Amino acid sequence: MDKKIIKYLKESSLSRIVDHMEKHSCGIITTYRGERTRAENKSNNREALAVLKRKGYGVTKVKGSYIENFGSDTAIEVGEDSFFIVNYKVDGDDGGELENVLRKLGERYDQDSILSIRGKDAVLIGTSKRDNAFPNYGQRVPLGSGKFGRAAYEFLTRIKGRPFAFVPEWIEEPDNVMGKWAMASMADKALKEIGEL
Predict the structure, then answer these.
(1) How far is CA 30 from CA 2, 137, 178, 185, in A?
(2) How many structural domains comprise the chain?
(3) Contact, 88 vs 24, CB < 8 A?
(4) Tens-digit pLDDT profile for the chain (197 aa)?
(5) Label partner for 7 (CA 20 to 30 A): which of 128, 161, 177, 193?
């Protein structure tokens, strides 16, 4: 396929995601966990997809990158098949309908969190009761504005290879433990890539 066509498809897919976020309640979820087998993760994702489709939501497969067990001794970066979900049934904020469904699915599959996007407000919501989960169960962590096309953060998603991320203020201005951990992690990754670590 022509490189110009591939570039257009990638950019149009990302612009569609942005358009959905401006017009409807959206969210991101996966059922993947690092300690599960590939077959278990795929089976759980199929089940979650079936539920989301049955509820009448629009679902797009995306690639997520996330720190599982964030901030603990068992923290690991995982790449996982995720879903970007849109509640087409309601224009604007749906009053938490999609968010509630995603929370229940996050709990069912013992996910650290789900991402809820309602209007311009994106929030990470803890859905696991494990001691090493981040954020804590029920905790809401507000995230900053979306960064599209050139996102390079610890928590990001890709649609057809194009990254986008919601960047917490503590990553932009690291004045607390989480921000400092994220900055140190980014630095270690960059140093490793340039051969200085």
Answers:
(1) 32, 17, 23, 23
(2) 2
(3) yes
(4) 334 333 333 333 656 767 778 899 999 899 998 889 999 999 999 999 999 999 999 998 887 666 666 667 777 766 678 898 999 999 999 999 999 999 999 999 999 999 898 877 788 899 999 988 888 999 998 875 555 444 444 444 554 555 555 544 444 444 444 455 555 666 676 677 787 65
(5) 193
**How many angstroms separate the CA atoms of 44 and 132, rounded?**
22
Residues 159 and 173 in one domain: no
Same domain, 42 and 86: yes
Quick one: 184 and 197 in the same domain?
yes
pTM strictly above 0.85: no
Q: Which domain holds residue 197?
A: 169-197
